[in-house]
């Protein structure tokens, strides 16, 4: 049996690696110039960073 802490750590690590693979595969094709907005169908997603909103 695996502890909840270990399960969370392993799955977080795996998800991080999978996201890096996805980002790495589209990074050169999706730039601010080529992809000015992040959307899926009629939905547009916004990103807020620590700078200003």
TrEMBL record:
It holds the Pfam family Mob1_phocein. InterPro entries: MOB_kinase_act_fam, MOB_kinase_act_sf. Gene3D superfamilies: MOB kinase activator. This is Uncharacterized protein. It comes from Perkinsus marinus (strain ATCC 50983 / TXsc). The lineage of its organism: Eukaryota, Sar, Alveolata, Perkinsozoa, Perkinsea.
């Amino acid at each position: 049996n695996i502890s909840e802490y270990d399960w969370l750590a392993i799955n977080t690590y795996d998800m991080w690696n999978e996201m890096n693979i996805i980002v790495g595969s589209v990074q050169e094709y999706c730039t601010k110039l080529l992809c000015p907005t992040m959307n899926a169908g009629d939905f547009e997603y916004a990103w807020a960073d620590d700078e200003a909103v």
